[in-house]
Amino acid sequence: MNQKARWIKHISIIVLYIMAQLIVLPVALVYMIMNQGQVDEEAVTRISLIANIIGFVIALIIIGILFIKIKAPFDFELKYRQPWLVSLGWLVFGVVFAYITQIITSIINTQVLKNPMQSENTMEIMEIAFQYPFFILIVAILGPILEELVFRKVLFGEIFNALKINKYVAFTIAFLISGFIFAIAHMDFTHIIIYLGMSFVFSLIYVMTGRIIVPIIAHALMNTIVVILQFTFKDTIKDLEQFQELSNLIFYFFI
């Protein structure tokens, strides 16, 4: 019964995540129909972003209800679950380790794999955030929560729990598969190694604490810090080239 209930919950999480991403399409279509095909691009963008936020909030409310109603934890969650104080230590470690991992994978990505430093996905997201600051709610909070539930709780968790082999091999397979899907979902193929690095760190602190809330907070903290840096340095650095160099570095730290 627990396994069946968990599958129901996890399939629902994936469906809700997809719906929250796609809700902008019918909203934009309805807007254009109501305006007889006359397109105000700024209005469409603003309405779509608001719809996106509402979709994310509704998805998280329903997911929260599912977690309350359906209690079906993985075996490893019960086995490795740590006290909250220990989990807090892992949270701090996770954030620091994530930044170190991103620096290392970024160097490999540019120097060894010869991929561009800038992430087009991140540049587009931050451009939207600069133009519509309320979008930061998705970037810093709502997005990380849903992404960790989908890519760590559901994908990584199900794979890791299902593989009845050596736990280190199972962990490696699970974080690689969920990490690749994480990168594909962001349509950012030139930075796959960085997504894999983040998948490793977030999966590690998830397993070591047995609490999905730990990678959720770590992910949200990282994105929040990057947003703050972006807005702060955009206003204070006058030299455009200097800002571009700094942005290139900061873009590495935004997943």
UniProtKB/TrEMBL annotation:
Domain CAAX prenyl protease 2/Lysostaphin resistance protein A-like: 132-225
Pfam families: Rce1-like (PF02517)
Top-rank taxon, per record: Bacteria
Residues that span the membrane, as ranges: 12-34, 46-68, 88-108, 128-147, 168-186, 192-209
InterPro entries: CAAX_protease, Rce1/LyrA-like_dom
Alphabetical UniProt keywords: Membrane, Transmembrane, Transmembrane helix
One Gene Ontology MF term: endopeptidase activity
GO biological process: CAAX-box protein maturation
Protein's recorded name: CAAX prenyl protease 2/Lysostaphin resistance protein A-like domain-containing protein
